[in-house]
């Protein structure tokens, strides 16, 4: 999704029927995919985006901002007479929280907006594809082209990661955010060592979590050895578990968390692409 965000900061969130004055106001590009790919572009990648905007002033601003940041907009769909997606974001300076009021664009993106030949062209020489899950019907067509299919109902996050790798044998890794605690990654081993010791993935996660220095304010990453990672009732994969902590930011430095998760995804795309390049060169 690509959108425009109208961001307004207030001293505290208004009560019903209140009238209050803002302390600052900004207009910026937004949307999950838009934010993530802008982050990746600013880090040095050459991403391209598939989404839809209207031929209104907001749609024009969205495209111009993407192009200024180095995001390829060749496959963006522009709807004649339509309106672009936008959000009002109210930032509470006291609680450091934000409230988003989202207005979807119209008409919505549908599979017919992009022919299969155009979609194939958009995916030429692409090594990584990111779906933000917003335009689900249109993404279904894209997903079929790149053979993406994953769903897990496992309550345990480590078990769910094992389930994803078992369902998708060509997937090399899967990452999940742990919010302010950082992130977790399960990486498949290319050469399965059936002689290696089997470890319960949930117990391994608990053990690794206990070894983290909770007093450290810097971001760190710890890794298990490559082993047979077992999820009870699900199966076993050969690989390693990695835990990454998030930098602890003092509350006084927090301004607005809008787009923080998207920036995380953009950084993951950048890091993984660099690993792919070093692997194949």
From TrEMBL:
Record SUPFAM superfamilies: Ribokinase-like (SSF53613)
Signal peptide interval: none
Keywords: Kinase, Transferase
Gene3D superfamilies from the UniProt entry: 3.40.1190.20
Superkingdom field: Eukaryota
One Gene Ontology MF term: kinase activity
Span of domain Carbohydrate kinase PfkB: 4-138, 247-271
Family designation: Belongs to the carbohydrate kinase PfkB family.
Protein name in UniProt: Carbohydrate kinase PfkB domain-containing protein
